[in-house]
């Protein structure tokens, strides 16, 4: 098994010549149970679905609210103090009392769940990500990184085919930003001739996997 080391702070490009291997690698981050792949950090086995965030192709329909839904609920619940919880409990009781009154008045064959669950109330409010207008693939990457920082989301963000949509200046800017944030991100690409053009950028590491599944780290074979 070959080991691929990601930068601790910066962009790790993984260029794959074999189409099936590229598909398998990307699928691993989405379904987890793909043979012959392991995700680890400091010798600890990690779970792709829990410890990474696979965004996919920047040209696809990317919904930040769907991506961060669970994190939004989690951080909101964590920030509720005792006073806020008491206020929400009173409001929840008032809502249930009003609906119960309608049921009794109309003699309706309906009953309500009277259990108090703040998480259900938060979901009912449908909180969403507050971001600037996202109009370009570059905006998507920046928004993902910004929201992850604000939510203290430590997952590894993974993008596919970014250089179909980014220019070199944008790549340099992203590399500088993630180095400043001390964050690691991964870009998957189908191998292309021009990958050497940006292999020497600061904050960018290149891993090339040839058609025979041999991996080269910055043009050096990885044993």
Keywords:
single chain; 223 residues; alpha/beta; Rossmann fold; 2 domains; 7-stranded mixed β-sheet; elongated; disordered C terminus
The number of helical segments is 7
The description of the largest β-sheet is:
7 strands, mixed
Given this structure, which CATH class of the largest domain is correct?
Alpha Beta
The 3D shape can be described as: elongated
* Counted beta strands: 9
- Going by CATH, the architecture of the largest domain would be 3-Layer(aba) Sandwich
Write down the CATH topology of the largest domain.
Rossmann fold
Measured distance between first and last alpha carbons: 9 Å
Tally of discrete structural domains: 2
H and E string: EHEEHEHHHHEHEEEE
User: Beta fraction of the residues?
Assistant: 15-25%
- Main sheet: which strands, in order across? 4-5-6-1-7-8-9
Unreliable stretches covering 5 or more consecutive residues: 219-223
Helix/sheet category: alpha/beta
Fraction of residues in helix? 40-55%
Radius of gyration: 23 Å
Mean pLDDT: 83
